[in-house]
Write a structure and sequence with these properties.
Layout lengths: L1 H69 L2 E2 L6 E2 L6 E15 L24 H4 L3 E5 L4 E10 L2 E10 L10 E9 L2 E7 L24 E11 L3 E8 L17 E10 L2 E15 L3 E8 L5 E8 L3 E18 L2 E11 L12 E3 L2 E3 L2 E12 L4 E12 L3 H5 L5 E13 L5 E14 L4 E15 L2
Antiparallel strand pairs: 1-2, 3-4, 3-5, 3-23, 5-6, 6-7, 7-8, 8-9, 9-10, 10-11, 11-12, 12-15, 13-14, 15-16, 16-19, 17-18, 19-20, 20-21, 21-22, 22-23
Length: about 450
C-alpha cells in the first residue's frame, strides 16, 4: 500500500513537470504547426493548379487537332480555300440576279420561257402577238452557281469546273448545266463554250442573250491547245451537241463537229480566226399512210400506202474573224463577223436547215457584231452595240417556209454601276427588228434593268 502511494506520487510529479515543459514550448509549436499547415495548403493549391493546367493543355490540344481537320486555309487560286494536308484548292462562286423587263412591242419570248431578248420570234406587225403590247415581267432564272477546283499534278495543273444556272425554258426553275469539264495542261475534256466562239470579241450587254449575230454555244468536246510565245495559240476540238440542246435544223448528228481556231493577243488587243464543219442530217424509218375511200357500190375501203423513210445528210461549214482593239485604257472597240452555210446551232438566230423531197438544203448566213465599251470610272462602265444576222440567197430560199427570217438585228445602249464590291446594277435600252422571207416585219423596243449580287469572285 505504501509502495503504490509512492508510485502514484512520482507519476503525478512527473505529469506536472511534463505539463510545465510543454507549456513552456507551446508558442514555438504553434508557429511550426501554422507553417506546416500553410505549406500543406500551398501544396494542395499547387496540385490543383497543375491539374487545371493539364486539363487546359489537353483541351487546347484537342481544339487545335479539331481545327486542323476542319478549318480551311487560303488556296492556290484567287478566292479559293484548301484544307490542311490536301493539295486541291476549291472556289465556290456565283451570283443572284433579278431582271426587270418592259417590252414596248408585242408579246414575244416570255410566253415560251426565254425571258431575255430573242429577235427571231419578234411579233410581226398585224399578228395577235403584236396587239399584246407593253408587257412587263421580272425573273431570276439567270442566277448562277459554280465550283472550280485546282490541283497540282506531276503532269501539270488540273482545273475542274462545274457550273449551272436556272435559265431553262421549261419554266420549272431547275438547274441547267452550263460547264462541266476538266483541263490538264493543253487538254480540255467536257462541256464548255464552243471552240468556234470568241468571247473576247463579244461586247458586254445587260441582256442575258447578248448581241444579235453573235455565236454563243456550249458543247461537250475534246480540245487541244498548242501555245507558242510569238505565233499565238492554235486550237483544235471535236464537239457534239449537248443532250437536250437546241437542234436548229440538225435533227440527227452522226459525226462530231470539227472546230479550229487561231488567236493571238497583244497589248493592243487580240485577233482570232475560226472555222467549223458540222453535219446537218435527218433519218426516219419507213411508215405508212392510211385513208378511207368509198367505191362505186358505196363500200368504204381502208387504203394504206407505204411512205419511204428519209435518210439525208449534208455537211455545213462556218468561218469567223474577230477581235478587240484597245483605243485607250478606258475605251475598247470590239467586232466580229461569221459566215457559213448550214452552221445551224452555232448561230444564236439561225433559221436552220430544211428538208424537201429527201434532200437537205442549207442556208447561207452572215452575222456581224460591233461594239464600243467605255469605262467611265472605277464603278461605272457602259457599252453601245449593234448586231445583225442575215439569210443570204441560194437554193434554201426557194424551199424554206415563207415565215423564215430574212434578217434580224438589234442595237443596245447600256450602263452598269457597281456602287460597292460584289454588287452591280445595270440598265439597258434595246431596239430590235425582224424581217421574214415574205416581207413581213416586226419591231421590239425594250428596257431591261438588272441587279446582280456576286460571291466568290
Amino acid at each position: 500500500m505504501k509502495t503504490m502511494s509512492k508510485r502514484a506520487l512520482v507519476a503525478a510529479v512527473a505529469a506536472a513537470l511534463s505539463c510545465s515543459a510543454f507549456a513552456a514550448t507551446d508558442p514555438v509549436l504553434d508557429k511550426l504547426e501554422k507553417q506546416i499547415a500553410e505549406l500543406q495548403k500551398q501544396i494542395q493549391e499547387l496540385k490543383a493548379t497543375q491539374v487545371k493546367e493539364a486539363d487546359a493543355r489537353k483541351e487546347l490540344a484537342n481544339q487545335v487537332e479539331a481545327q486542323g481537320k476542319e478549318v480551311a486555309v487560303k488556296g492556290d487560286i484567287p478566292g479559293s480555300v484548301r484544307r490542311p494536308g490536301e493539295e486541291t484548292s476549291v472556289r465556290v462562286y456565283g451570283f443572284a440576279r433579278l431582271d426587270a423587263v418592259h417590252n414596248f412591242g408585242g408579246r414575244n419570248n416570255a410566253s415560251i420561257g426565254d425571258y431575255a431578248a430573242y429577235q427571231p420570234s419578234i411579233a410581226l406587225t398585224g399578228s395577235p402577238e403584236a396587239a399584246q403590247r407593253g408587257e412587263s415581267y421580272m425573273f431570276t432564272k439567270a442566277s448562277r452557281l459554280g465550283v472550280e477546283a485546282f490541283t497540282p499534278t506531276k503532269l501539270g495543273s488540273l482545273t475542274t469546273k462545274v457550273e449551272a444556272d436556272f435559265y431553262n425554258t421549261t419554266g420549272s426553275g431547275l438547274f441547267r448545266l452550263r460547264h462541266a469539264y476538266g483541263q490538264l495542261g493543253s487538254w480540255l475534256i467536257g462541256q464548255t463554250w464552243s471552240t468556234f466562239m470568241d468571247l473576247d470579241s463579244t461586247p458586254e450587254t445587260v441582256d442575258f442573250n447578248g448581241p444579235t449575230g453573235n455565236t454563243s454555244l456550249r458543247q461537250p468536246q475534246i480540245r487541244y491547245t498548242y501555245v507558242t510565245p510569238n505565233a499565238g495559240n492554235f486550237i483544235a476540238a471535236l464537239e457534239m451537241k449537248a443532250n437536250g440542246g437546241a437542234t436548229s435544223g440538225d435533227e440527227m448528228t452522226r459525226t462530231p463537229d470539227l472546230v479550229l481556231r487561231w488567236e493571238k493577243a497583244s497589248d493592243w488587243g487580240h485577233v482570232a480566226l475560226r472555222g467549223v464543219t458540222t453535219e446537218n442530217g435527218i433519218k426516219s424509218g419507213d411508215s405508212s399512210s392510211t385513208y378511207y375511200e368509198a367505191d362505186g357500190n358505196g363500200v368504204v375501203n381502208e387504203i394504206t400506202t407505204p411512205v419511204s423513210g428519209v435518210s439525208a445528210s449534208k455537211r455545213g461549214y462556218g468561218i469567223g474573224l474577230g477581235g478587240h482593239y484597245v483605243l485607250t485604257d478606258t475605251t475598247w472597240l470590239l467586232a466580229s463577223a461569221s459566215y457559213g452555210k448550214g452552221m445551224g446551232r452555232f448561230f444564236n438566230e439561225s433559221v436552220g436547215s430544211t428538208v424537201s423531197d429527201g434532200k437537205v438544203y442549207l442556208p447561207k448566213e452572215l452575222g456581224v457584231v460591233v461594239g464600243v465599251q467605255q469605262k467611265f470610272s472605277d464603278t461605272l462602265r457602259g457599252s453601245v452595240t449593234y448586231g445583225q444576222q442575215r439569210t443570204l440567197g441560194g437554193e434554201y430560199i426557194t424551199v424554206a417556209s415563207a415565215d423564215a427570217n430574212r434578217s434580224v438585228k438589234s442595237g443596245t445602249v447600256g450602263v452598269i454601276w457597281a456602287p460597292i464590291a460584289n454588287v452591280e446594277l445595270g440598265s439597258e435600252f434595246m431596239w430590235s427588228h425582224r424581217e421574214t422571207l415574205d416581207g413581213r416585219s416586226g419591231t421590239e423596243p425594250r428596257l431591261n434593268f438588272a441587279a446582280t449580287y456576286s460571291f466568290g469572285n
